[in-house]
Amino acid sequence: MTVRSVTSGSRHRRYSASTVSTTDVRTGTVARIFASALQHNAVRVRDLAPGSRIMACVKGNGYGHGAVNTTRALANAVDGFAVATMGEALVLRAAGIESPVLLLEGPHEAGDICKAAEQDLSLCLHARYQLDWLGQQAAVDVRSGHVFVRDLS
């Protein structure tokens, strides 16, 4: 296994070569995200907030670094993942990610509530119409903790 040294500010760390690399086609800029660095950061957050649950946000394709690879790198280090849309959540499920996933934008149509239940996804509701959709889906098995309601006033 190759080990690379990385200097960040005044710190110098060694990371294994397991990386997620992306290239900006417009500028040619290459970003290399070290899986071990992600894991280290998650452990550090857990150390700073003992007893807290940690959810890693991987929306926007892991902020352009690959949501599936980022999620796999963090699967054993965090309690769950957050994405913006149903499409992003379904990509994770199709890749075999079984960790809890929260849709930050909530459902965009009434049918998304059934999809969320089928895929064991959690929803964040932001608007009264989303709450109405949930009420219309009475037959859907929505387990406790799978729906988060923001202040709808």
Structure in words:
The chain is of the alpha/beta class. The chain is 35% helix and 25% strand. It contains six helices and nine strands. The chain has helices at 35-48, 59-63, 67-74, 86-94, 111-118, 128-136, and strands at 3-8, 11-16, 19-23, 30-34, 55-57, 80-83, 101-103, 122-125, 147-149. The chain has a five-stranded parallel sheet. The chain is globular. The model is unreliable at 1-17 (pLDDT under 50).
Give the topology, please.
Blueprint: E1 3-8, E2 11-16, E3 19-23, E4 30-34, H1 35-48, E5 55-57, H2 59-63, H3 67-74, E6 80-83, H4 86-94, E7 101-103, H5 111-118, E8 122-125, H6 128-136, E9 147-149
Parallel strand pairs: 5-6, 6-7, 7-8, 8-9
Antiparallel strand pairs: 1-2, 3-4
Short description:
By secondary structure, this protein is an alpha/beta fold.
Give the biggest beta sheet.
5 strands, parallel
Helix tally? 6
Low-confidence stretches: 1-17
Distance between the termini: 54 Å
Which keywords apply here?
153 residues, alpha/beta, five-stranded parallel beta sheet, two-stranded antiparallel ribbon, 6 helices, disordered N terminus
